[in-house]
Amino acid sequence: MKEKNNLPKIDRAQLKDVSEVRIDTSLPCAERMKQYVEQIGNPYCYLDHGIVVNVEFGDSTVSLQERLKSFACSLE
Prior knowledge:
It is built from 2 helices and 2 strands. The chain is of the alpha+beta class and 76 residues long. The termini are far apart.
């Protein structure tokens, strides 16, 4: 049986590529997060070296904000 694709149509031209995001690692963590979101636009749907990434979370108590904070704070 063929699996049905439930993803909405995505206009790739509207997406930012994460490979082009530049974060100033000398900034505090909150400012790094702000820079990331300002540059990537939609943190749930973006490109990674030309590949569409559509982020969804399942049954988890970890929020996107917590995951982004962890990511931004890990940058050195």
